[in-house]
Specification:
The protein is an alpha/beta fold. The chain has 6 helices and 14 strands. The strands form 2 sheets. The chain has a 7-stranded mixed sheet with strand order 6-5-4-3-2-1-14. Strands 7-8-9-10-11-12-13 form a 7-stranded mixed sheet. Strand 3, helix 1 and strand 4 form a beta-alpha-beta unit. It is globular. The protein binds zinc ion (2 copies). The site of one zinc ion has 7 residues, from loops.
């Protein structure tokens, strides 16, 4: 099972010469099961280039897949109107979102394509776009199984754990937007934290929100994002093999991300942790 990063940035796209290595597109991941079933996580601006790649490789065949949304904040949905396969008749996507959102995913995605803000209506998409019930926070798809968990983020958001059918030891956990604050005055209560640690426990790969430095976090308490330090503590507690820093701050240049990564390696060493830490970059793949 493989994941490719098409968008790694949080909050707002950040194109330009200083973000070419880690990428400027907002959240989008492509997961391929062993028999090549397509699973997409989030539809930030990265989904535009994913769409071009899918169309190119389809050679005219129909494209089908599952599309899971962590939540409906702009940086996780804004690429969908530019997802070329959605405009192609014969293609078919199932759209999964949390039923706990204040407004349903369907309402938000339709509003994003209403005439005041976008020229093409959702109903003009030629592909079959089916909104799927996701009340149980669990789904078994072709060749994969998935669970979701509510995380701490304004308006609510989901984290996901996905693995090849029957092989939960080969899990990838994806938590793009989540506020961890272990020791601060916004600390989660112990049972909430334990439940989240259990959710991620033993994963091969944990892709987690690591938007802020410690100092930045102090200025953004309650905004729903984590410092890299808290992400590392969480990864060590959950005994994951690899932590992928994700949802990069829009102003973070490639050079600044390199520096942050070096501090992460130092911190893991200081804590005698065994987790490998990398930073998500557009085009990067991870496999389990
Ligand atoms: Zn976000
Ligand atoms: Zn968000």
């Amino acid at each position: 099972m493989n994941v490719r990063f098409w968008g790694t940035r949080g909050s707002c796209p950040a194109p330009g010469p200083e973000t070419t290595r880690y990428g400027g597109n907002t959240t989008c991941l492509e997961l391929r099961t062993e028999d090549d079933h397509l699973v997409i996580f989030d539809a930030g601006t990265g989904i535009r280039e994913l769409g071009l790649s899918l169309t190119e490789h389809a050679n005219g065949d129909a494209i089908t897949g599952d599309l899971f949304f962590s939540h409906a904040h702009w940086d996780h949905i804004q690429g969908l109107p530019f997802f070329a396969p959605a405009f192609q008749k014969g293609n078919q996507f199932q759209l999964w979102g949390s039923p706990a959102l204040e407004r349903s995913l369907e309402v938000v995605l339709r509003q994003q394509m209403s005439p005041v803000v976008f020229p093409v209506a959702f109903d003009q998409l030629s592909a079959r776009m089916e909104f799927a019930p996701f009340a149980a926070h669990a789904h078994s798809g072709p060749g994969y199984e998935l669970r979701a968990v509510n995380v701490r983020h304004p308006g609510g958001a989901l984290g996901f754990r996905v693995w090849p059918s029957g092989e939960p030891q080969r899990s990838i956990v994806f938590i793009p937007d989540n506020e961890l604050d272990r020791d601060g005055d916004r600390a989660e209560d112990a049972s909430t934290r334990d439940a989240l640690v259990d959710f991620a426990r033993g994963a091969k790969v944990l892709i987690h929100d690591a938007m802020y430095t410690g100092a930045e976090y102090m200025d953004h308490r309650g905004w729903g994002h984590s410092s890299y330090r808290d992400a590392i503590d969480f990864a060590i507690a959950a005994e994951v093999e690899t932590l992928v820093l994700f949802h990069h701050e829009p102003d973070r240049t490639d050079a600044a991300l390199d520096e942050m990564l070096a501090l992460c390696h130092q911190m893991v060493q200081e804590r005698s942790g065994r987790v490998q830490v990398v930073a998500a970059a557009e085009g990067m793949t991870v496999g389990v």
